[in-house]
Specification:
By secondary structure, this protein is α+β, with helices and mostly antiparallel strands. It contains ten helices and 28 strands.
Length: about 525
């Protein structure tokens, strides 16, 4: 990068820091920046997946783009990305407003202009992103807003096609008008891209939120990106999760960040940047992230002659991402790969790969501590045995690979919101032992809370009759369960800990001929 570009970036950062300093005095010390919306930027090349800009181009023209946030706040800032563009791109002006009635319609009384270092315009450096200054705006939870930009030099002019930083599968419409239309109440007569479900340069929004707030960032492909949903219907599975989290007091300050890229791979290849190369940006470069979820790799195994090497590479990538998250104090939730019987991806090889990966996710990932919990989307969507477990249930079937709208809703509604609750009573596990004759039997407890009771997640390598007992330090049994049969994989127990005094207890989990004993600590956090 040239000296002039470095100086330009430094100048912008200094201006931004001054602006932040001025605002800081009016922002409560009880709040912090937390991401409320995000998308995964990607490069745009000519003809890629049918996403082409209109003939009028973007230079000196206006673009209006709708989005739906998760958590709210009274102050926000926005990131605009030029990361995949090899030339500087000027934004002559940009604003945010509340959606009104009709496509591209806004309530003009709600327009607030973004500034950049105190200026209305900014030239984004090549291969970089910029932040707006903090902006007072009454953003309510789940609000739909429009972002309107007026591009200048560097954006694709009419008849040309340089690269541009986009998100192809935003499931929203980029409405484009020639000239400056920043304050137009509607975009009547707009034109759009050849595949009218993408966005340009908008990357993320962060809000001032309580210190207890946090966000979950989700790494995925077109299933997370919501292929098949109508534009601006906001019916992806992450939208359903957002609605559920906002509906409950204890999770109403959890932001949801969708970093799915359609046709994207995890390890290498695919359309756009593989997950292993983009995960740090898309999972960790957002303020307030406390949890991540990984639902990515179906394209790795469906686009290749899948082998043991393929599945091993996927598992190694999962491990790398999990270790990186844990090093940052972030919890990791894995998800099983959903069935694709009936789709062109299906073969005996690809299905064997999927099963190997899902077995690792359900068992080894949990017992080794790589994953803190697992969301079993495969078990949720597939046809139950003795039926064809390689296929989705008819109720949720779209093209064999992607769920339909009901399937997306079922996925989002089925994610345990207790995974995102902090505080209340919890159980922490310490050292212990496992007895039994069969090798490979292991149990790992992962604490989660629901109300005032503790939920413990454990892993069984095989089906077994399970019972548990909780003892005081004097050896007195204080709680116990009756035997119950559990299948292999991740399972959940709820312990009635609300009335237990804080302190140290012994815990025995018996599964068939094996017993796992742990010392646990009941705490209030």
């Amino acid at each position: 990068m040239s000296l002039s570009k470095n100086l330009s970036r430094l100048s912008h950062l200094l201006a931004l820091s001054v602006s932040l300093t001025l605002v800081a005095g009016s922002v409560s010390a009880q709040t912090k920046w937390v991401a409320t919306w995000a998308t995964a930027p990607e490069p745009l090349v000519s003809g890629q997946s049918g996403f082409n800009p209109p003939s009028i181009g973007l230079a000196n023209n206006s673009v209006r783009q709708e989005l739906r946030v998760s958590i709210g706040g009274d102050s926000l800032r926005m990131r605009f990305s030029n990361e995949y563009t090899n030339v500087p791109v000027k934004i002559n002006g940009a604003n945010i407003s509340i959606v009104s009635t009709g496509p591209g319609f806004i309530d003009t009384t709600t327009i607030r202009n973004f500034q950049f270092g105190g200026q209305d315009s900014i030239t984004m450096p090549a291969n970089a992103y910029v932040w707006s200054d903090p902006l007072a705006f009454p953003l309510t939870p789940g609000m739909k807003v429009e972002i309107t930009l007026w591009f200048g030099a560097g954006a694709p002019p009419a008849g040309s096609y340089p690269g541009m930083t986009v998100h192809r599968g935003s499931r929203t419409i980029a409405r484009i008008l020639a000239g400056n239309h920043l304050r137009d109440p509607n975009f009547t007569g707009y034109v759009t891209t050849s595949q009218p479900q993408g966005s340009f340069v908008i990357s993320s929004i962060e809000v001032r939120a309580p210190q207890t707030a946090g966000a979950v960032a989700i790494l995925g492909n077109s299933i997370t990106d919501g292929l098949g949903v109508s534009a601006e219907s906001f019916t992806r599975w992450t939208d359903a999760l957002t609605t559920n989290l906002l509906a409950h007091t204890k999770t109403s300050q959890v932001g949801v960040l969708n970093s799915g890229i359609g046709a994207g791979n995890l390890v290498s290849g695919g359309v756009s940047t593989p997950g292993l190369q983009r995960y740090k940006r898309d999972l960790f470069d957002h303020s307030g992230v406390k949890w991540i979820m990984i639902l990515l790799a179906v394209n790795d195994i469906g686009n290749t002659s899948c082998s043991m090497t393929t599945s091993n590479n996927v598992i190694a990538a999962y491990t790398t991402i999990a270790d990186s998250a844990h090093a940052r104090g972030i919890k990791v939730y894995g998800a099983t790969l959903t069935p694709f019987g009936g789709n062109s991806y299906y073969s005996t090889n690809s299905e064997s790969c999927r099963q190997r990966i899902n077995t690792w996710v359900r068992t080894t990932a949990l017992s080794s501590g790589k994953y803190d919990a697992v969301v079993d989307f495969d078990k949720l969507l597939r046809i139950a045995a003795p039926g064809d477990t390689t296929r989705m249930q008819a109720t949720y079937y779209n093209d064999g690979l992607h769920p339909n709208i009901a399937g997306y809703a079922f996925m989002g509604n089925s994610v345990d919101t207790n995974l995102f609750i902090e505080g209340a009573t919890s159980i922490k596990t310490e050292s212990g032992s496992t007895t039994g004759k069969a090798s490979g039997f292991s149990v790992r407890f992962v604490s989660s809370r629901t109300g005032a009771n503790a939920r413990l997640r454990f892993v069984l390598p095989q089906a077994a009759s399970v019972s548990w007992s909780l003892y005081s330090t004097q050896g007195r049994q204080v709680a116990a369960s009756t035997p119950r049969r559990f299948e292999a994989g991740e399972q959940v127990l709820e312990l009635q800990t609300a009335k237990l005094p804080r302190g140290v207890y012994g815990f025995d989990l018996k599964a068939g001929a094996y017993t796992a004993s742990r010392k646990v600590v009941v705490t209030g956090q």
